[in-house]
Amino acid sequence: MHRLITRAASASALAGAVLLVVAPTASAHVTVDSSTTTPGKTALLTFKVPNESETGSPTTELTVKLPPVKSAMTAPVAGWHSVLTRSADGVPTSVTWTVDPGSPGIGRDQFGMFVLRVGPLPSAASVDFPATQKYADGTVVAWDQKQAPGATEPEHPAPSVVLGAAGSTAAKGNSDATARWLGAAGLVAGLIGLALGALALRRAA
Prior knowledge:
Elements (H helix, E strand, L loop, with lengths): L1 H21 L8 E4 L8 E8 L8 E7 L5 E4 L5 E7 L5 E8 L11 E9 L6 E3 L2 E5 L4 E4 L16 E3 L11 H31 L1
Antiparallel strand pairs: 1-2, 2-7, 3-6, 3-9, 4-7, 5-6, 8-11, 9-10
Helix pairs in contact: 1-2
């Protein structure tokens, strides 16, 4: 029985250690998901914008630069308005979402979602959507760093979609971070289950 108690304590301690080790590796970036990854097709893009302000200041504006596309349309977002910027020949080049007066914006521990329809996607291996995030306190964060193949994820990666593959992607490296989190969560859940099982055996004895 002493051995079971020791195992339960060890499992609990290990679970705590996993949380302490994994938590600092998580990072929230401005990311994009696409309804299609096929070049030449129209795509529905969903930009996910987390609040990363150290002071808790709300996000009040997001600007996204567009790749070479012929058309772009925004979906309404409650409390926000959008403006499409076009070149002299009418080609959309960027879109800016700005919070409406009196609306709270994206606050602490929140993220916003902005939907954009563009097309056709260019013929390329991947396409970046450099973004600029602005906060109410004047802080500006540029999510525009390109990640080289096989290199470490930069501090502020540009939202990116890999084309020619099944499914959609977020900013490069973000899917790997998500996988690490899910794996760690599964490990922690398993360890906690082991600890609870050991305690149950102890009570039954």
